[in-house]
Design a protein that fits this description.
Number of strands: 0
Keywords: Membrane, Transmembrane, Transmembrane helix
Shape: rod-shaped
Order of helices and strands: HH
């Protein structure tokens, strides 16, 4: 893998140098070396700008595609989550009405009878005075 990366980098550098030499040799004979280099730099700036615009267009297209995919999958998922939340809410309501209330009623009845038997038998506990604690 490292060997392929090094060979690719060296190959790209050779192509880059050949392009510069070719563009330099294409210049007119009455141009100075500095004018030729300026023209080469302008060509590379334009090519870099074109590459940047192409990459930005590709990224924009990918983002649009991603948003469309997410929209198509998230909306049904949110509807399913909403339905599940309603089911959980209804189940909790049913459990509280059908199971907790009768158990609480029985517990209250037991506590009432226990207190009644304590009062009748005279075995009530004295409630401690909070100020003396």
């Amino acid at each position: 893998m490292r060997r392929n990366a090094i060979l690719g980098g060296v190959g790209a550098l050779i192509v880059f140098i050949l392009i510069i030499v070719g563009l330099y040799l294409l210049g007119d004979d009455d141009q100075s070396a500095l004018e030729r280099l300026r023209d080469i730099a302008v060509i590379f700036v334009v090519l870099t700008s074109l590459l940047t615009v192409a990459l930005l267009a590709a990224v924009t297209g990918a983002l649009i595609y991603l948003v469309m995919q997410v929209k198509d999958k998230v909306i049904p998922l949110l509807e399913e989550v909403t339905g599940t939340a309603k089911t959980v809410r209804n189940t909790a309501s049913f459990v509280s009405e059908e199971t907790v209330r009768p158990i609480a009623g029985v517990a209250g009845w037991v506590a009432k009878n226990r207190q009644f038997s304590r009062v009748v038998t005279g075995k009530t506990k004295k409630i401690p005075d909070p100020s003396k604690l």
